[in-house]
Amino acid sequence: MFKRVEETAGTAITFSFEGKELTARAGDTVAAALLAAGERSLRASAVSASPRGPFCLMGVCFDCLVQIDGVPNRQACMVAVKEGMSVHRQDSEPEAVSL
Amino acid sequence: MSTYDVAIIGAGPAGMAAAIETARAGLSTIVLDEQPAPGGQIYRAIEASGPARTRILGPDYAAGRKLAEDFRASGAHYVAGATVWNIDSELSVDFSLPGGSKQIRAGSIVVATGAIERPTPMPGWTLPGVTTAGGLQILLKAQGLVGDDVVFVGSGPLFWLIAAQMVEAGVKPKAMVETVPRSRYLAALKHLPAALGAASYLRKGMAMIAAVRRAGVPIHTDAKEIRIDGSERVEGVSFTSGGREHQLATTSVALHQGVVPNQQVTRLLRCEHLWNESQHCFVPKLDEAFRTTVAGVYVAGDGAGIGGAKSAALRGRLVGLAIAEKAGKAGPEERRKVAEELAREAKIRPLLETLYAPSPEILSPADDTLVCRCEEVTAGAIRKAVDMGAPGPNQVKSFLRAGMGPCQGRMCGLAVTEIIAARRGEPVSAVDYYRIRPPLKPLALSELAALETDEPVPADIQAEAEAVH
Question: When you count CB atoms within 10 A of the terminal residue's CB, does the N or C end of chain B come out lower?
């Protein structure tokens, strides 16, 4: 499990992963918020459908790809979590997007 | 399209230091960086870090604050959250921002994209719960998050630094599994006299290892036959050390085998690269002013070869001063002084590079080990492609799709090159690297469609681009 050594000044944020409501802190990336919530696997790999999760946390490995608010292929480690954000596994059924 | 005298890619120590100099010389300067705040990965979240994190991360991290302040005050146009996805030979730079892509043109380009962690192919390295060691440190710097069950596997200064920081945070690692072969110590010893010229680094290194040891963290040395176990996520690590087999149960493994230049931009620009045997990686070919073989393109910081944070800032300053000098806005005296300081910083490198060279196991992964994480290509498949006649990484890419996934070879490129070189019995420099093409990062078609031009962007395309961000 991950612990916070310092309460980031940011306020609590509510978002969801696979429909499950989770809490994050302002200043968290989506990847950090999911790891802090105990989530490890964020997608199935494209070739063998093996489980994958955040690896580099700096935007170079693309293993943390998720769907955010209906848009797939977002790097969870490069997107700041926002109130009400709906995050789904990359391999979930695509969410209807209202543009 | 806006035009700048200087465009700097990356706002780590090198990019910030270069910008401070070019802006001081009165040159119009734009700095494009992917992160929401300046600092790069080494000084990640330096402006937001509170007292607890600053104490845990130590004075070397805190030193970045002054640089970030000077950078903010420099007058350079800093664009946060900007992902550069193409640069052409006319030095036009395309980058993504929330809301769409933009294009600027520059007289000079400074590539300050720093380093990434070396690919570390080993059994089980794609399991959820496995991260790079640097990745864990980013979570600590940016979010104050520390894992309580971490087994570190690998070697290098960062391997010990992060463990020492976790001890300081009161959440000590579960174990250190170090891969340095015993024979390396003797080989490294001959570089000790030179390293004494940078004795403060030696002292810091010894203090970090001592702190981890004192905290009672089990340290396994000369580890071999390493395997990460688990089916849906990490369950443990197996290895041999001290003539015994070990099996550690854990939910978190942090891998580290040193850092290497992030070559994506210099490869995209077709800059010439050379193989650096001591650092075991490619570095762009540079002259004394850090100019690449492509006119107007400079490289500063770890992207020019690994030297660490202080050295990165010094090289950033040197590049900034060189560009100012070329524009007739500075003389050579200051550059000479900074260069002397840089030479002192470099004295520790031969010792570190010898002792902490990548472990033989990750340079020669077993046939069934995945090397390309995106397209799931094994070392054995790469060797087979070589046996069928593939002479280099680009042919292996065509045969197997290695390096063709979303990471575009960042996570496998060096490993693929080494495997091909070993199989062909050729030097790595002859095998070379993937050809990198735009876009440097995947981007939505709607973003391309909304590329800022003189034409007005249709409202529906603009709305779609905004939804993407």
Answer: N
